[in-house]
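ESCALATION

Customer reports they have been waiting on this structure for their group meeting. Please prioritize. Original submission:
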Amino acid sequence: MADFRRCILAFAVVALLFGLLPTANAQGNVNGLICTANAAVPPTLRGEGLTELVGDIVLTCQGGTPVPAGSAIPAANIQVFLNTQVTSRLLSSSLSEAILTIDEPQSPPNVAVSQVVLCTTPTTGCTSIGTGNVPANANEFKNGTNPNVYQGQVAGNSVFFVGIPIDPPGTFGSRIYRITNVRANANAVSAPGANGIPGQIIALVSASPATGGSGLTSTFSINNPQVTVGFVETSLTTSITAVGSTTALTASGIAILQCVSNRCYGNRHRHRTVELYRAVPDGIQDAYGDRFRHHTATNSWLGVQL
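Update from on-call: job pushed to the front of the queue and completed.
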């Protein structure tokens, strides 16, 4: 009897799991839209860095049926989770420098910065109007009216974008959602060990229904939702050398005596084994290409430096 009861319980669990599968899949597609997540070539990030700029995440969406012309486009929330803390600069209490763009705003025929339309209510989303299942749908977010740049909100290990309009492109090309300017704490990710394999920053992209500016909800399925957005390497190496030498000293060859102010007790100052003020600058080296970075021009969209 006990064995029979265990069998009944096992069948019930299996039935429950199979019953849940259609539900998980059912909330995926919206009008047949299918999106695939890809990452740009993952950059090499400084293992000592707390605000390392990770690679862009691009959602390329195809197929589906566009909303009728003149109709409000349904919206979804798009969220990115990292395996470390998101450290993009906060421009307000939660709004950050991380942004999501739609259909590459500065690509032809919309190449002027003045044509970029920023959603001014990123915490709730903005209303966008569809052009219908016509060729103009390809430039639906390049018409100077529909917002095509959304700021992200940072929460711990994630950044999320609220009320993003989701309108399938139909047969007129692809709809592209690019997530960029996301920074991460690379110092919390293990740098290469003895095996030399670099650490990785992994991003997981998800979409969920949202009541955006249009008041309508939507979502879509994402193929390949997990992507690598950065490799973590140790970027600085330090060494101590004797004056006039380029050979790094070992621990046994270093004798640094404690000093007070700018002078040492007695005659010890003249017998220092290592002159740190000369050794340290020469002993800091860039472990791999271009790790010492400089600020670039101010971002013309949000008024922040990248």
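Sent to customer with the following note: The chain has a mean pLDDT of 76.
Escalation resolved.
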